[in-house]
């Protein structure tokens, strides 16, 4: 590191004062608080911290007592394990960490009776999380926070981690010894940096801890460096198992740590809780599928999810707004060819509905060859639509009058506002705002996420979309359209659509 | 609780197999944090023949913070303050070098060795440290004198 950098770092270390009192591990809070801390600081800091909450909604402050990096990583390890809601996984970790005692005695050279009580705290926390988690996940989270704020327990766990890192270094000296500064050597480094109880974690320490604790359980770690280097975005580095630069486990949970000179805090990317106004809606969404929030994913979702339960859940959401987005139709891509088959397979579960039978002039058996020319109505078979809407109709509603079969497509697709009386779920609109899958939510643990980059993309999309009026909804100023990959503003023209109506539509080949 | 468990194990180790010339017990049976140690002045040192009472205090944060040792019997030594406190400075017990995996047994042995081999560069008492470095016979004479005065027959 250049001397100048060191000076800058030292200056920053003087400027930034991590909390020296208060809880060892704080409550999760909005990361806007970090930006506020720096509001009067260097302009580069201000820019970087202002951008921070957009990507990382929350942070958790860790006490700056010389163990913050160890404690932050340790806490995140337990918290991420807990978020998996997988008792078997926790049991595996109990077995793995118990077996690592052997490493500490044989390679680390510490007699077991000297450290067994520290390991016992780690193991007992894992065990208690298993039992508590099954009855109440919230209580398990509270238990974790409480144990980590009990100095005796917390320090025992942290020291257990130090001993693991120390033994891991001794056992893999060839890999790491070049990272040791000066002429300390492996033994000297262990003594000075790892074994001393209040010595701050350094870069090698973090590497060791990730390698011994987190990589084997499949967790990746992203460290976000908040320093005064040029740029308006924070620098970050991802630590994960890689093969030729490609993550071997791309869907793995990611722990985010915020590094400020000589201090670590925890960052979170979950957005759901950051927008409290949306809470009730989010719960509905979470119970169905998180992907439903993203209009771009809607078509994919149809392919992945064939179950009728999910489709019923859609009735809680306002699909009319999606339909009224101009150009909202599946793209003429190979994946689209699967649609007719998809809808055919769903069909039996809905044939019993009087409404769907009466208003489905578009044959679900439309051949794949027509696909590339499907307009909005055809791309979204009205049979499907009718089923989405029907649960919101009062049972005795004269459905046939409201939707004359001959006229079905136009009112549904061309004139969203006319459907409003039967869409009490209109307030659900804010749910269309972005939010990244919440790592702590049970559904995300099992939801299919083909690539981690998709998650990043979701997190990068910031502004909540609020549809205020139906006019605005259809306006080209409505930014929601940009999330539809097929949106082509110049192609949509209200007049021409009116003129074409069903006549033009059906003629198109 | 884990601190007390650890201390209990350490106490069991040193009482069942104490270092030569040491008697170890608790000051108060109900408190494992204060140990009462009687150490014979080791052979090969000017302190031989003396019986030194030490108080070993284990902090509540033990083993994450080091224990402290005070000489209750006055001792004239470069690394022990020559006053009622009798504070002892020894590398193994310094905050930045203490390791929670250190054993009290080793602390006691190190203390015994310190009486045989003072560390004048780390001295708390400069006068005895100067003598130890520059005039060993006079140092030995002074140490014997104070041992006789404070540590023999008391």
From TrEMBL, chain A:
The keyword Cell cycle does not apply. GO terms for biological process: protein K48-linked deubiquitination; proteolysis. GO terms for cellular component: nucleus. Its EC number is 3.4.19.12. The keyword Hydrolase applies. Residues 57-270 form the OTU domain. It is an enzyme of class 3 (hydrolase). PANTHER family: UBIQUITIN THIOESTERASE OTUBAIN-LIKE (PTHR12931:SF15), UBIQUITIN THIOLESTERASE PROTEIN OTUB (PTHR12931). This is ubiquitinyl hydrolase 1. The lineage of its organism: Eukaryota, Fungi, Dikarya, Ascomycota, Pezizomycotina.
Automatic annotation (TrEMBL), chain B:
Coiled coil: none annotated. SMART domains: UBCc. It holds the Pfam family UQ_con. One of its GO terms (molecular function) is ubiquitin conjugating enzyme activity. Its EC number is 2.3.2.23. Keywords: ATP-binding, Nucleotide-binding, Transferase, Ubl conjugation pathway. Residues 2-152 form the UBC core domain. It is an enzyme of class 2 (transferase). This is E2 ubiquitin-conjugating enzyme.
């Amino acid at each position: 590191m250049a001397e100048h950098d060191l000076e800058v770092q030292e200056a920053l270390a003087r400027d930034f004062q991590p909390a020296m009192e208060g809880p060892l591990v704080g409550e999760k809070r909005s990361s806007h608080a970090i930006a506020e801390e720096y509001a009067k600081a260097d302009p580069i800091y201000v820019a970087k911290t202002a951008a921070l909450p957009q990507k990382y909604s929350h942070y958790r402050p860790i006490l700056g007592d010389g163990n913050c990096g160890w404690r932050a990583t340790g806490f995140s390890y337990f918290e991420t394990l807990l978020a998996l809601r997988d008792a078997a996984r926790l049991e595996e970790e109990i077995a793995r960490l118990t077996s690592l005692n052997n490493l500490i005695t044989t390679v680390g050279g510490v007699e077991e009776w000297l450290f067994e009580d520290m390991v016992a705290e780690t193991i007992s926390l894992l065990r208690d999380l298993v039992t508590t988690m099954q009855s109440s996940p919230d209580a398990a989270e509270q238990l974790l926070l409480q144990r980590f704020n009990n100095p005796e327990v917390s320090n025992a766990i942290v020291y257990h981690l130090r001993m693991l890192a120390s033994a891991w270094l001794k056992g893999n000296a060839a890999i790491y010894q070049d990272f040791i500064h000066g002429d300390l050597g492996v033994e000297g480094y262990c003594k000075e940096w790892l074994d001393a109880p209040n010595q701050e974690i350094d870069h090698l320490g973090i590497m060791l801890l990730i390698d011994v604790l987190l990589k084997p359980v499949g967790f990746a770690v992203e460290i976000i460096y908040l320093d005064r280097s040029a740029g308006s975005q924070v620098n970050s580095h991802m630590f994960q198992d890689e093969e030729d630069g490609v993550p071997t486990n791309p869907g793995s949970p990611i722990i985010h740590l915020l590094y400020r000179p000589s201090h670590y805090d925890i960052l979170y990317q979950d957005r759901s809780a950051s927008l409290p106004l949306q809470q009730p809606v989010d719960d509905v969404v979470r119970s169905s599928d998180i992907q439903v929030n993203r209009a771009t994913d809607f078509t994919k979702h149809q392919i992945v999810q064939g179950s009728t339960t999910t489709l019923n859940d859609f009735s809680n959401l306002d699909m009319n707004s999606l339909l009224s987005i101009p150009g909202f139709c599946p793209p003429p891509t190979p994946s689209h060819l699967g649609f007719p088959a998809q809808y055919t397979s769903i069909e039996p579960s809905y044939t019993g509905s009087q409404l769907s039978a009466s208003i489905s002039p578009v044959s679900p058996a439309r051949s794949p060859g027509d696909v590339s020319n499907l307009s909005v109505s055809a791309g979204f078979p009205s049979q499907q639509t009718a089923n989405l809407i029907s649960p919101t109709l009062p049972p005795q509603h004269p459905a046939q009058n409201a939707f004359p079969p001959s006229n079905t497509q136009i009112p549904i697709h061309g004139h969203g506002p006319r459907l409003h009386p039967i869409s009490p779920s209109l307030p659900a609109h804010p749910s269309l705002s972005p939010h990244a899958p919440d790592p702590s939510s049970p559904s995300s643990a099992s939801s299919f996420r083909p690539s981690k980059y998709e998650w990043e993309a979701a997190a990068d999309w910031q502004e909540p979309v609020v549809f205020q009026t139906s006019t605005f909804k259809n306006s080209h100023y409505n930014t929601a359209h940009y999330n539809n990959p097929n949106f082509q503003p110049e192609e949509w023209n209200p007049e021409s659509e009116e003129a074409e109506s069903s006549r033009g539509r059906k003629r198109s080949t | 609780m884990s601190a007390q468990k650890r201390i209990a194990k350490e106490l069991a180790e040193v009482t069942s197999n104490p270092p030569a010339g040491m008697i170890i017990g608790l000051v108060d049976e109900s408190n494992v944090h204060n140990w009462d140690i009687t150490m014979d002045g080791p052979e090969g040192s000017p302190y031989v023949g003396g019986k030194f009472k030490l108080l070993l205090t284990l902090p509540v944060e033990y083993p994450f913070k080091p224990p402290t040792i005070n000489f209750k019997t006055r001792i004239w030594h470069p690394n022990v303050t020559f006053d009622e406190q009798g504070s002892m400075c020894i590398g193994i017990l310094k905050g930045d070098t203490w390791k929670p995996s250190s054993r009290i047994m080793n602390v006691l042995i190190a203390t015994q060795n310190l009486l045989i081999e003072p560390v004048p560069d780390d001295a708390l008492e400069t006068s005895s440290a100067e003598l130890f470095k520059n005039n060993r016979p006079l140092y030995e004479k002074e140490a014997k004198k104070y041992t006789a005065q404070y540590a023999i027959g008391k």
